[in-house]
Each structure stands twice: as structure tokens, then as C-alpha cells.
Amino acid sequence: MPAVQFNSRPELTRPDAGIVKVSTWDVGTPERQRLTVEAIRAAWAAREWPHPGLLSYTVLTGEDGKTLLHHSQWTDESVHQEFARTGRDERVAEIDAAVPGIERLGLRAYELYRSGVKRDNREPGCVVIVDIELDGPDPARQRDWVDAVFEALESDPAPAPGGISAHFHVSTDGTRVLNYAEWESAQAHVDALAASGDGVGSTTPQWHRVRNHPALRRSTVRRYTPALSLASGL
């Protein structure tokens, strides 16, 4: 197996990623956030890359000072299940020994549906996770909502200058959409929210449709700082 490679960010649009896993850990405090990231780095650096079907593993620290978001890309679901059976336990045990009492808040499976990327070299200082819950499982409505967002973005007369990319994932159970959005900084996102007073985006009919889509049940927006991104080395 190859060694672990430490990257600045994941390649979110890679075509061989058949499935994406997203989970959250609650570690309690900013100091425990820092210690947990260090423990993750040490646990993975001490071992070879566990499986060629795991493409990347990224950790983000929550602005709330207590959560970590985990984003991983896999070739398919069966590879993830094999890793969970054979390669996960020793890493988890080492992390838990370093930072006891981590609360793991669930794991969801997604597929990347659409991405919008500005072609520049800016490194993201902030990742905004927008979690959309629909009023029932319906893959067609998942995609319809995302398509409406892209129509709104493409017709926006004053797009937010601090946005770098947006990657819309649809959950495999048909009930959610997750946008992994890279921003120049947290302040750039704060400024974009304040510009219209009603979320990112201008006050256009297209954005009104997005915000009032009949399938939309609720949404949450959380900001994170990139902390660690791993991939298979050569």
C-alpha cells in the first residue's frame, strides 16, 4: 500500500469518486478540536494508505469551536464497508486514546451531482456546509432543487466575490442535498449573507424559487476551517 500524502484540499470533482461519506464529531472545545486533528494526523501518518478505493479523507474544524466535519471520497460503497470492517478500528482506537469522549454524530452517504468552480488559484480559508433536508425521499426533487440553484447562480446580477467553488451532493437515500462550498474567508461568506439579508444570492425570482422550493423542509448553514486533507501517495 502507498504512503499517506498530506494535501491542502481534496480534489472534489474527481470522476472516480462514486460515493462520498460525510460525518460530524463533537469534541467539546477548541482545544480538543486541535488535539483531535493532531491525533488524526498522527494515526494516519503512522500507517500506509488503507485501500486504493479510498480516494481522499478531509477534516474541517467547526466555527462553533467543538465540531469536526469529515469528508471522504470512495470508489464505491463496498470499499467503504470493507474499510469499516478491516482498517478503521486501529485508527479510531488511537484517536480515542489521545482524545477520550468524542461523540460521533452519524454518517451519511452522498453522490456528487453538480459542481461550479471559479477558475482561479485561490486557496479556501473557509468551507461552508449547507445541509438541505427535503420533505421526503425523491431523487428527482433533489436534482431539481440543485438545478434551480445553478439557474439562480448563473442569472445573479451581483454574484458574491468571495466564493471559490460549490459542490452539490445528493444523499443516496433521496432525502438531502449537501453543498460543500469553498470561500476565500469566513468574512467573505458573512458579507455575502449580509448583502441581501436573505442568504447568499440576490433578490431575484430565481433565488426566490430556490428559497421557496416546495420540497424544501429545512436547511442549516455552518462554517468550517480546512484542517487536514489526506490522499494516497505515489
SSE order and pairing:
Layout: E1 4-7, E2 19-26, H1 30-45, E3 54-62, E4 67-74, H2 77-86, H3 89-98, E5 103-117, E6 126-134, H4 139-155, E7 163-171, E8 176-183, H5 186-196, H6 205-211, E9 216-232
Antiparallel strand pairs: 1-9, 2-4, 2-5, 3-4, 3-9, 5-7, 6-8, 6-9, 7-8
Helix pairs in contact: 1-3, 4-6
Describe this protein's structure:
With 234 residues, the protein is an alpha+beta fold. The protein is 30% helix and 37% strand. The chain contains six helices and nine strands. The longest helix is centred in the middle third of the chain and has 17 residues, at 139-155. The relative contact order is 0.22. The mean pLDDT is 94.
Question: Which labels suit this protein?
Answer:
globular, about 230 residues, alpha+beta
Helix content: 25-40%
The whole-number mean of residue pLDDT values reads 94
Reading side by side through the largest sheet, how are the strands ordered?
2-4-3-9-6-8-7-5
**Estimated radius of gyration:** 18 Å
Question: Helix count, per DSSP?
Answer: 6
Encode the helix/strand succession as letters: EEHEEHHEEHEEHHE
- Give the overall shape, derived from the CA principal axes: globular
Low-confidence stretches: none
| Strand residues, percent | 35-45%
Main beta sheet strand tally, sense and closure: 8 strands, antiparallel, barrel
What structural category characterises the helix and strand content? alpha+beta
- Give the CA-CA distance, first to last residue: 10 Å
Per DSSP E runs of 2 or more residues, the count of β-strands stands at: 9
